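Illustration 12: Putative glutathione S-transferase.
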Amino acid sequence: MTRAPFAKESSSTGEWKRQANRFTGRISTASKSAPGEGPDADGLWPVEPGRYRLIVSLACPWAHRSVIVRKLLGLEDAISLAIVDPIRDERGWRFTLDPDGKDPVLGIGYLSEAYLATDPQYDGRVTVPAIVDTVTGLVVTNDYPQITLDLSTEWRAYHRNHAPQLVPADRTELDQLIAEIYADVNNGVYRCGFATSQEAYEAAYDALFARLDELEIRLMDREYLLGDSLTEADIRLFTTLVRFDAVYHGHFKCNRQKLTEFPNLWAYARRLYRRPAFGETVDFDQIKRHYYVTHDTINPTGIVPKGPDPRAWES
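Figure caption equivalent — predicted structure in token form:
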């Protein structure tokens, strides 16, 4: 089985550089388009409940963020959800979990079909999460950092009562923390796993654990990263932490220590896991099968480890 072309994202020095997001349209209350219309001149699509479909893999940490935020904010009826198979083939993410191997709303077998309908020349990796317009079948966005922010800020009219405010009015500290966590932790584990030189791997490894050490200290005297309230930053860190011991510690060689060996981070991650929308959206089977089977240059045998025991998250 041919895998996704990760080699295209490896630099001459062996450092892995994530590809840019191809589709960066936004669904916004500022859109000048009428309901049912496409994007306006600024690339803004109208906020329209029932129109858009969020495509995710439960294995993917970037997609997992959007699943958690959608559920926390009560947007299940406003934005429908499609879940792809955790195992990709040469055409990418597949809807083989659905009857007849096709998404029942979009009528496609591969997410790549929507990508190519939107940009027939696209030859990069097909990524999740992606939001697809059910009216035209076109990809609105695969800009995963912006997707969750927009769910919080642009879809407020459709939030459930007493939904958490995940994006504070003053975003200065939030945005700085998000950037640091992305560079060293969220993307840092991938920079370790996909490095093709010892130097690039060790640089990413050192930055990862330096940042985890800082976060361990930060969580000594607070419940959440920014104090007493859950924010977008917590969700972004959680989706990496929940995969750490199961995947990143061994598969990506992030093995200075396990998450369970960071007392504050481990306690924090378990607190989040017990919250609504967090643990209930974690699928360790899909997570492990995706990483260990899909990345055949890292794990050519395709053997999926039995451990670690997920019951530790419930203790």
